[in-house]
Description:
This protein is of the alpha/beta class and 779 residues long. It has helices spanning 30-38, 49-59, 103-110, 121-129, 136-144, 191-197, 205-212, 218-234, 259-268, 297-309, 338-352, 384-397, 409-447, 449-460, 466-470, 492-505, 509-526, 529-545, 552-573, 577-594, 598-612, 617-632, 646-663, 666-681, 693-710, and strands spanning 114-119, 151-154, 160-163, 169-172, 283-291, 324-332, 356-361, 373-375, 406-408, 480-481, 486-487.
Amino acid sequence: xxxxxxxxxxxPADPPGSxxxxxxxxxxxxxTQSMSSSIxxxxxxxxxxxxxxxxASTSTPTGSRSVSPSGTGTxxxxxxxxxxGGLPGEGxxxxxxxxxxxPRSLITQAFVPHIAVHTSADTKELVKDxxxxxxxxxxxxxxxxxxxGKVTVRDSIGAGKTWEDFAVRxxxxxxxxxxxxxxxxxxxxxxxxxxxxxxxxPLPDSVxxxxxxxxxxxxxxxxxxxxxxxxAEQFPSMSGEEFLNLKDAHLRSPDIPSPFYTLYLRRLxxxxxxxxxxxxxxxxxxxxxxxxxxxxxxxxLRNLYDESSRGAKRLPLWVNNEYLRYYVLVHDEExxxxxxxxxxxxxxxxxxxxxxxxxxxxxxxxxxxxDDSIRLPRCEWLAAPEEITEIQTRELEGDIEDxxxxxxxxxTTAIKTFIREMxxxxxxxxxxxxxxxxxxxxASRRRxxxxxxxxxxxxxxxGTSSRSSSNGPTSSNSNYDALQGFYRPDAPExxxxxxxxxxxxLRDWKLAYSTFDLxxxxxxxxxxxxxxxxxxxxxxxxxxxxPQAISSKVRSETIDQMLETSxxxxxxxxxxxxxxxxxxxxxxxxxxxxxGSATEDAARWGTRLxxxxxxGVVGDALFKERVSACYASKKGAGTExxxxxxxxxxxxxxxxxxxxxxxxxxxxxxxRVEEANGKYSALTHKDxxxxxxxxxxxxxxxxxxxxxxxxxxxxxxxxxxxxxxIDTSIGEESEAFVSRPHRRSVMGQVAPLANLETAPLHxxxxxxxxxxxxxxxxx
Length: 779
């Protein structure tokens, strides 16, 4: 029997003899068919340079070259946020997150202050002349993902810390409103078409565009990652440094994930919906902008303020409307007089205070051939529906050359200066003042003895009638409006949730955790289940983000309990699969970083995520890879590596390979099989798997099937073999596979061999149909 540790299992084989196998058809299932139908609206055309660079900028690791057929390079900044590696240390003490592949880097870049943008019609016209139809927010958005220079933030005790990767997110005012969870069999992205089909008024294009920029839906993420995987399968050898062709895949550190998993997690955290139960996407400020072309500037600014406060642009009732307004005058460098603009700017400061800025831009459109033109940085935090739309647009254009928008270098300097000045002099000081005020006036009282008595009175409804007491938490003591499903923005619970989110965005993990921990009890007493689930989720994440060591007892009593409560409430009580996926994915990755026994906890939560079936077929394969990485992160002791989980890691690599092969992603399956072989060969007894007959046969057949898919010529037909061929078509309910007679899960029982009437079989499988199969005895 061939050892599974053979590193060259996928080299083209010589034409076999009478026992050769025919290339099997790609396996199909109901899930893969639904995935295929979900991307039927996205025709996969021959790649052009524009689309190729778009795929390469997201799906290749940091420092790799473009996989574009045209050889077009990608900006070095395109994967600056490549994440989800880990720390090699064994202890629970974490070092600072100073590497982009650290998962904490992803979290700090995802949960950032949101700044709304509301502009006048003349400002939109000026920006449109520059070639940006979306408006000023579209021009500012890519530069907000990394604020220029160092940013100092003070925590709740006044200690300052400097960050070099601070970011903000620019959105159009009104973007991100949470879309209700879809019912089974429907798609939230098709909401507008469904309304039209039912005879109701279809949604306006502006509303549909806003919803395309809103995340919170798993199906578009699955579709997007599948598109990137299809491109990687189509062009697997465009670069020697490309991820799919890295040699010695089994030697790759588990701290470095595949770029497709990084893409999945990044899109999962992109476009966080504007929802009442969390305030991360609630605006901390609003940029109100006019241009130097405006004939009545002061009155226009007042009208824009009124629109954002009481008019058509007023956000929902559960959003606190008392956020900072920042006034901007956009000066046209090519058409208007700077002296008049300076005079107007001084007048603005007298009317509206010091939160003002004069932004000087050129109004003409920049092209790549201009002397001082540079490429506009690509946004890394696009929502999945928005990126799918961008891919479709570029495919329909069919540009031979890469065509990204360009901007003048002088405009770039002006925008970076504006964003840094606004963030460091207005946004962060304003957030710090809010945190200090809310912590002193609301949270500190809640932490005291009187606050605990108030919590007890809410729970037990002291002082109310017996009838009210029987209703428990729904008594008049609660500030939660159960009919509308939210707290008023001035309610203490809503203020404390905003305090915790502000502390989290300012990276004060200790204050954030203590506040979330207080809120868990309040939300549970009020039966505000979505608030309760979100508070448990962020309490666990906040505690895991702190660099201090966490004992196994604390993990089991606090973190495990919070993750369990969060996932249960999200799925069972709220039907919010997006929240459950986010909480378990972040908890898994942060626990994996802790090393030691925490890696097994991480693998357990990854397995739980798969059991919940909240992800599609692509996510299922990706998270099986991460469960394997969690087990691989457990290092053994001594020369024999006692306590390591190499065999379990190899098992999950095999399961991931099988999942990728089912999806037709042959390159990914090949990588996972090689990874499993490498792990088995690293064991003291390299041929130990050969003692587990069924597991060994499963891996060998998987290798053989991947080899046949990669090299069809290895299954050349010999004379007289036509009559031995068996129909390899697969139905939805059963699978009859001549090349893999033992096709089943390695965790299950041995499949019956009655259906295999022909085709040469060898080894133990040929022995006896009547023999009682032995247990796999395979972990």
